[in-house]
Design goal:
Layout (H helix, E strand, L loop, with lengths): L52 E7 L6 H10 L14 E9 L2 E9 L7 H8 L4 E7 L3 H5 L1 H11 L5 E7 L11 H11 L2 E4 L8 H16 L16 H4 L6
Parallel strand pairs: 1-3, 1-4, 4-5, 5-6
Antiparallel strand pairs: 2-3
The structure holds guanosine-5'-triphosphate (GTP).
Guanosine-5'-triphosphate (GTP) binds next to helix 1.
Length: 245
Amino acid sequence: MSHVGTDDSMSDDVFEDDTLRAPAQHSAPSPTGYRDYKPDDTIRGIVEEDVPIHKTILLGDSGVGKTSLLVQFETGKFQAGNFSATVGIGFTNKVVTVDGIKVKLQIWDTAGQERFRSVTHAYYRDAHALLLLYDVTNKTSFDNIRAWLGEIREYAQDDVVIMLLGNKSDSGLERAVRREEGQRLAREYQVAFMETSAKTGLNVEAAFAHVARSLVAKANPVDPSRLAVRAQPSQEHRSSCPPCS
Ligand code: GTP
């Protein structure tokens, strides 16, 4: 199991070569690309020492919103226009309660840029869950999902929980990928699917809750109906993809 400690949070020492770092654009650059955002590496509100931590990794092309999704989940905020590419890798810890069960998620934010890919692969192997994002305004990021799923098959464990997320669903006219296309792809690969918005918060908690529920179900195989994707009520009829879960 991966360790939890204060020393390793958001460590970017895997990128010792300064030429690989994005130019410092802000006063307090962060490996996440978010100014002044430092993920919490402590488990809050946890007393059960024997509850395992589930390593959960955010994946997808650069700019699809991985860091934004994590920041929204962690802080409930969206920092518009505060973008610089993630150049490191690190984790934040979060406890999600599903059906009365506390699940500890250790959520890793990764750099989406191609040049960091080989480093990211090293983190797949012991991952319990993968949140794979594309940007609904960026068709290329959607087309690249097949390649991402190929890498996942190659580097991750066979039984890893995978969820596909179409992020930036708030984008209206800029949309380039229809919700149905995302649903179809998810169904083809037998993975769960939701559209999310790191900007408005739509389905952000729901996505992590679904992952947590899947992890619980995997550990205690019982009734598969508990795994139906539960999008936020206002979006349920459009976002959920029950056959995919
Ligand atoms: P890398 O670190 O390079 O892998 O990128 P990333 O996937 O972490 O993307 P990031 O979270 O840094 O977001 C990229 C840009 O998209 C930023 O300008 C964000 O403000 C914007 N963005 C992220 N999520 C959303 C969203 O849900 N809606 C809208 N409208 N913009 C978003």
